[in-house]
Amino acid sequence: MPTNRALSAFLIAKRAAITPATAGIEVTGARRVPGLRREEVAFLSGVSVDW
To answer: Which top-level group of life is the source organism from (predicted)?
Structure first.
């Protein structure tokens, strides 16, 4: 599904553009990819990770 790949690439790029320090989140542990984790995005958005 090309649409899913495009959406995935878009979300990954947007998450990578914001650092935890910029978002006001304490950095804990090593990160495999730059930017915010899904859990952090969900927290900042006010939704659950499962949603």
So the answer is: Bacteria
User: 30, 32, 14: which is closest to 22 by C-alpha?
Assistant: 14
Q: Are 25 and 40 in contact (CB under 8 A)?
A: yes
Q: Could you list the mean pLDDT of each consecutive 10-residue stretch along the chain, which spans 51 residues?
A: 81 90 87 87 89 65
The b-or-e profile of 19-51 (16+ CB within 10 A means b, else e) is ebeeeeeeeeeeeeeebbbeebbeeeeeeeeee
User: 14 is written with which tokens?
Assistant: 């947007």
